[in-house]
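ugh ok fine here u go
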Amino acid sequence: MEITALEPRRKSLTAVYIDGEFALKLDTQTLLENRIKIGTVLDDEELKQLIEKSNTRRAKEKALWLISYRDHSKKELADKIAKSCDRTSAEEAVERMQELGLVNDEAYARRYAQQLFEVKHLSIKGVKYKLIEKGIDRDLIDDILSEFDVDPKEQIREIIDKKYARCLSDEKGKRRAFSGLSRMGFSFGDIKSVIAEYTDNDEY
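structure:
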């Protein structure tokens, strides 16, 4: 297989043409480091190794770019990286970020849980579901959530004050509030009790 053309592309990539036809896009720096130029002849194994090196570099660069914007869980980061390269390279990049101390599921989960409690006012159940979505280990989730002392009724009051206080005067509004709070993981008893505080009755 002979490299017959190399054309620069966006995002530090180069289009590689083999035997006169477009073959694939590879990381430009990887091509330079391996002295790949027009006229270079590669066999199947050499091309495979070149692709792996390119994927590894792209995955690490994408990982660093993503975590420069905000924290990520391991699973979340790997999923995002895998959109632009193979899954193996994505997971290897995440492992490297973990070794460097740039990715830490425990620290991430603790900060994220605190944010969900204090800003979103979610229930324990709601926060647990969000952490599971991020790929956090279930045992780790239980350990972290045990650190928080959260009053579900106070959380419900915060949400009602922000979203539902004006609509509790009729049954339709109460149902809307009840449905929304239920989806956030609050129990029937707690929701009913707090709504009664706002409506001066315990019929709902």
